[in-house]
Amino acid sequence: QVQLVESGGGSMQAGGSLRLSCAASGNSFSPSIMAWYRQAPGKQRDLVASITSRGNTNYTASVKGRFTISRDNAKNTVYLQMNSLKPEDTAVYYCYVFGRLPYEYTSWGQGTQVTVSS
Questions:
Q1: Please, which of 14, 50, 54, 75 could form a disulfide with 35 given CB 3.0 to 4.6 Å?
Q2: DSSP class of residue 66?
Q3: How far apart are CA 73 and CA 61, in angstroms?
Q4: Which long-range contacts (CB under 8 A, 24 or more apart) does 56-59 make?
Q5: What CA–CA distance (Å, rounded) separates 35 from 116?
């Protein structure tokens, strides 16, 4: 079973930066897709950004140009660099992975709180 450990959340004033990390363990194969989701109070969990094992990325419109997702396949770790933070970025951020080897699986992290004050 793949386990995910997230780190890097916290509180920041608007305009600041934070970097989230998520390390996957329990599988020697690198996940096909690694992603970050977020869930604000009273709202559904939405995709923020994703990255494939080949480095192809996808971002939700509201974070394009401000957030950057990257991964280190050797470490099975995904990062989310968040710049120019806004109060509307406040949410619990969840790491997510999807893999196909040695069998198809998905896994979620425990979530890390990001709070941006104006």
A1: 50
A2: T
A3: 26
A4: none
A5: 21
